[in-house]
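Allow me, if you will, to draw on your knowledge of protein folds for a short while. I have a record of one protein: its chain in single-letter code and its fold written as discrete structure tokens. The full record is reproduced below for your convenience:
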Amino acid sequence: MHSPIAINDLGLSFPHKTCFSHFSTTIYSGQKIAIIGDNGSGKSTLLTLLSHSHSANNIVHDGQISLPDNVIVGYLPQFFDNDKQLSGGQALNKQLSQVLAKHPNILLLDEPTNHLDHKNRKSLFALLERYQGTLLVVTHDPELITRCTTELWHINNQKITQFSGSYENYLSVNQQLKESIASQQRQLQQQQKELHNKRMQEQKRTARSKSKGLKSIQDKKWSPIVGHMKSSYAQENTGKKQKLIAEQKDKLQQQMSSLYLPKMLSPTFQLNPKIIKNSLVIEIRDGSLGYTKDSPLLNHLNLRCYSGDRLVIQGNNGSGKTTLLRAIYGDNTLFKTGSWHLPEPKDIGYLQQNYPELDLHLTVQQELEKSAPDWNEQQIRQHLNTFLFYKHEALNQTVETLSGGEKVRLSLAKITANPPVLLLLDEITNNIDLTTKEYLIQVLSGYTGTMILVSHDVLFLQQIGITAEFSLEALNAELINRNKNMRV
């Protein structure tokens, strides 16, 4: 048990955006809260502020979070230092064990299901369901939200909305709201169109009336005084109508700006590398692999991949999935034996866990310039626009300020600048919101090269059309055929 935690008028802004403002609430002991929102909305930063950790001291924000003296915080951040010999799942379990050893009465978890296999996911859910303290978790994992939380904080459109109820009810309410907003937008657009037509007709009528009055004066049907009086009256009446139309138009524009629908990503490019159809891309024969020469992690590796193949590497946490990807990429720190026929690293696009290929001190634009040195500034900006990096400030923010999902988008932008023959993707759906995930599915579905993935997201694998799996748990690590046309 702990005393209530008071949040008063909390606000968070960065030079290029406002995440939220004027948020006030009270967190009571035992509450189970999921913090959700798009990538870059401020979820992880909010959790850091609640942790009162050393990192929180460097975050500029408005308002105040009052943590009582009897609160013991257990905080698991999204990113942490990891021994390369530990898998992502093993490292997360190690960090979580250290957090729980403090016996916290409030637990703050940032994307805790990242990297976890089925067995470890099951263990985490069981632990959180038994946990008697207060839980706040940042996640995009529907199962985690449904099983382990009872309330939602949704960061969206520069505010935090609190929702008490099931995740299923939240999705239903949110969908109804989106449909209502879309309907209102269509109605307002139609009203704007009608007002524009009305204004144009009024201008034409005024011009005709003025022309008729001048003609009547010229034809001496009206005296100049009467003619000018009628013209003045017509202009005054027209002015009133024009003013009314303008006021209605301003009101409509204000209503339009108050309605918010998130921007949708849509690929504007083709991810088509120059490949030879049916060509052999990878061949490993009787291979072994490990961190030391005398203690191989994997033995009896036999694998062939051809152009266009889509392969997922399966195995429990610590089985060697990421290590195999690193070996295929050409990591010289690993010890290999046997025959390894692999593409050159320059022909491979490799998106790694935790994105170590990104320089934290460079800006978003500078990172892409490294991958596309021959592009001009307009090409760089247009390419980044397709990955939701729009404003000048967004292009010039440093990589270290990006959320996990934004780092995925930037990494993908760098890879697609030079479409590779082989794509290596290590837990690519970690950290990404639904919008980015849908975009990713579109991009990868159209990719014509060879793809090898590590992922525990079964639905995602189905959606991108995986053709086979390579099980590291199976005897001799043999390829399991999932498609009769797949060559093994």
Remarks:
- The radius of gyration is 30 Å.
- Residues 475-488 have pLDDT under 50 and may be disordered.
- Residues 181-258 form one domain.
- The CA atoms of residues 104 and 235 lie 75 Å apart.
